[in-house]
Structures are given as structure tokens and as C-alpha cells.
Specification:
about 30% strand; six-stranded antiparallel beta sheet; seven-stranded mixed beta sheet; about 300 residues; globular
Amino acid sequence: MRRKKGDEMNRLPKHLTRLGGELWLTDDEPGLLTSVRITDVLFEAQSPFQHVMIADTVPFGRALILDGIIQTTVAEGFIYNEMIAHVPLSVHPRAERVLIIGGGDLGAAREVLKYPFVRSVDLVEIDQTVVEASRRYLPEIAGEALDPRLRLHFEDGARFAARADGPYDVIIVDAADPIGPATVLFESPFYEALARLLAEDGLLVAQTDSPFHHPETARRTLRALEALFPIVRPYLAVVPSYPSGLWLFTLASRRYEAVRPLDPGIRTRYATTDVMRAAFALPPYVVERIRPEGPSG
């Protein structure tokens, strides 16, 4: 439902609290509570899959919040979207057909579509409410209008992968955390289905959660991808609105792994050629957390 600034919320969702007249959103990690002040709730709805909220926050500006967890914000969401999109598009020499699983805020798709050689993007998002709310309230992220090369599919990502026709040059798994409807998007059968959809020289990138708070997600993802691809390389970005700030992605490729120079016509605010290349240099403590047995090879 739509809420105007100043309206009182008689029934607050469990992840919102009112302290001294101020509204706060709290993210609960094991042993850690982090809170963000909310100044206005512009949209709130319980979809068939999750609680969807668009709110203005003090530190990050307008934000998409799913089940009480910040997914993207106007102030720094471009960091995540650029790193999940431009890394694979800079590693693959010419990705014409792209599949995005998740990414209902349309931010990753918007970055992918900056490349003129991309002919089509299939975006599979289970929750249509997320896309509609993002397009209405987050145009800075979703864009003002849909690119004609973008095709939206409102369905379960795992089911789409099981029945879709390839080949895709690049697949981007922009899934929410492995809870609720996104759980299957972090399991081996899903990655096996995606591998079948890739072209002979195709590659994929998956968001792999926080190496500090959830290293088990990274370990599970790495094991699944290393069973399917000869090249598997995790890389990092710093996303201020996420717990710990440090965020992991994983590139899985059949042939390519070097980051080529970013096309000078592609405008970014975070993902330069040097930043993307350096992102693959993992600090030892990250390697220890995601690979307790030590780095492979």
C-alpha cells in the first residue's frame, strides 16, 4: 500500500521499530544488530513471496527492502550492480545473449544493456511486485523506460532454467540471500541447469553473500561451480549497505578469465578496469574463510 510522508503505521512489520518517534529498520545477523533510520515509507506490500518495501533512509537514500533486508539503494546500489554486470561483460569478449536470474530492481540489467553488442537479455524474477515497485519508485536504479532488448519473465528461476533454451553467452545470478524463495538458487541442481544453458565458451557470475558473516554460502557455491567449470574465481566488492560491507561474487567460466579493458564509452562509477582486475586479489583472511582447506591449485 502507498504511504505518504508523515502517515502513521498502525501495524509495523516485525523488522521495523519506533524509537523516540523515529522509525528504524533492523537487520539481524547472528550476534549483530544493525539499524538504519527510515524517514519515509513510500510503498509497502506483502506479495505472494515476501514483504516488499520502498523507503527513504538517512544514510543510503531510497532503498528496496525485502523481508526487512536492504537489497539496493540509490546512494550506493550501483556498486553491486556494476560489479555483478561489468565483470562478466568485460571477461567475455562479446556476450550477445544474457540471462539474469533475480535482479528484480533491474539495476544489473540496466548495466548489461549499456553494451551495444548485447542483443537480448532475459530477466527472470519470481516476484512481479519487486519489478513494479522498483520501476515506480527507484528510476535511478531501474531506469526510466524498459529497453526493447529486455524480456521479463515472472516465474521461479530454477524452473525457468530447467526448461529454457540456450545457449546464453553470460548468465548472471542476482539472487537474494539463500532464504525463502531464493534458497534453491544456491544449490547444485540449479547451477547444473545453468551450465547446460551456457554456450561452449559461456560464463556465469553469481552473488555469493558476505564472506565474513556467511562464508558457508561461499563454500557451498564454490564446491558446486568447481564441479562444473574449469575456471572458478571469486572476487570482492565493498557495498556499504550490506552487513560488514564486504561482498563476494563468483565467476565460473569455460574459457575466459582475464578482465579486458572497459570500453571507454561505458560509464561507471565504481567498476573501472583496474578495480575489476584487483577485485580478484583476495585477502588471505577471506581465502581462509571461504576455503578452510586453503586455495586450490
